[in-house]
Hints:
Blueprint: E1 2-4, E2 11-17, E3 25-31, E4 39-46, E5 55-64, E6 76-78, E7 84-90, E8 93-94, E9 100-103, E10 108-111, E11 122-125, E12 132-135, E13 137-146
Antiparallel strand pairs: 1-11, 2-3, 4-5, 5-13, 6-10, 7-8, 7-13, 9-10, 11-12
Amino acid sequence: METYGLEKLGIVNTAAVTSGTAEALTASATVTAESETLLSIDKALSPNEIAGGGEITYTFTIRNNGNVGVDTAVLTDTFDPALSDIAVTVGGAAAPAADYTYDEATGEFATAAGALDIPAATYTRDTDTGAFSIVPGSLIVTVKGTI
C-alpha cells in the first residue's frame, strides 16, 4: 500500500512505442488533482428519550473527503428546546469558552472561526490492483446540556 498526500495526487501517464525499424515514440499526459475541501456533517442525539431537566448530548461528526485540511469552518446550530449549562468538546478535549458562543435564551450555538481543525483525507493506493481508497479526515464536536 502506498499513502498519498496532496503532492502525489497528480497522475502522470507515459507510453512508449518501439519497433525494430523506427525511432521510439513517447507520449505523456498529466491529470492534476484540484486542491479542495469536501465537507459533510452528521448530527446525532442521545439519549433518544429524555424528560425535562435531563441531560442530552448532540454529537456532530464532520468529515473531509477533500485533499486539503480546513481550519476556518464554523459550526452553527440552534438547539430547540434551548439547553442550559452546556459543555463543549472538540476532538475529545474540552473547548475553551472563547472557542464558541451560545445563547441560552434562543438556543443558538456557533463555534469561532479557527476553533475547528478538520484534517484532509488520506488516500491509499493498493500497489497490486491500483485501486485507491479514501479515509476521510474527521473531527467530532459534542455539546452536552440540560433541557
